[in-house]
Fold this protein.
Amino acid sequence: MSAMLNIAVRAARAAGRVTMRYFDRIDTVKVVSKSRNDFVTDVDRAAEIAIIQELRGKFPDHAILAEESGSHGGNEFEWIIDPLDGTTNYVHGFPQWSVSIGLRVRGRMELGVVYDPLHEELFTAERGGGAKLNDRRIRVSSRRGLEGALIGTGIPFREQHHLDRYLGMLKALIQDTAGIRRPGSAALDFAYVAAGRLDGFWELGLSPWDFAAGALLVAEAGGTVTDLSGGDRFFDTCNVVAGGLKVHRAMLERLRPFVDADLPA
Ligand code: IPD
Ligand code: CA
Ligand code: CA
């Protein structure tokens, strides 16, 4: 493991400790609504501080883009951080949430860590070095199409302007697959695609910190990640489709009738 990945893992574990400390006493955690259906807790903020302290201690010149505190200027190395992905699950005691840390250098993802402290699962990837779960290599599923496929998604719940076209997509994919899951932590959804637990995943209206690390995990596990049109502009559109090569291709085909303009959320 490279020194940088090592430090990213240390930062993710530090955030994991913060989240674990409060998960069994959620009633003591203050929940504030940022906007409709968008919650933040002191746990999100404390976990983010723990990550930034770890990273800034080692790399004071690097830039940071973090969900709760925004952009911290720096050089061309940019850490993209979601300290607690799946806050709605977390505050309900629903056991599916994670910490996500990615490093982007001159616009290209170089490393990614998605950590699920509750299940002690650490997903890591470095460009060109493959993807791992707890130090064992993982690969996307080799499923050849949608038949029998288990597909993950995120149902729009904040901005409802996506809802109609999303429901069209959902209907198209329900008809052709073994089932759809909405686990509630996009970063973990990508990690599950990388590990072959989900054959594919799509969601509209994400934010870069939801998928920065996860997209590299999928790519390094042999999968494909694109925007809805099959292009590589998903950091601009924030609409993302991921999966093994053949499932991804089949998903794009089913989604195509609902993609007139793949505009940002
Ligand atoms: C959310 C989760 C969820 C996805 C949302 C994200 P948050 O992140 O990843 O699965 O559907 O779009 O915003 O707000 O819990 O960090
Ligand atoms: Ca998130
Ligand atoms: Ca978050």
Q: What stands out?
A: Helices lie at 3-23, 42-58, 87-91, 163-176, 186-194, 208-220, 234-237, 245-255. The mean pLDDT is 94. Residues 44, 67, 82, 84-85, 87 surround calcium ion (ligand 3) (CB under 6 Å). The chain has two domains: 3-138, 150-258.
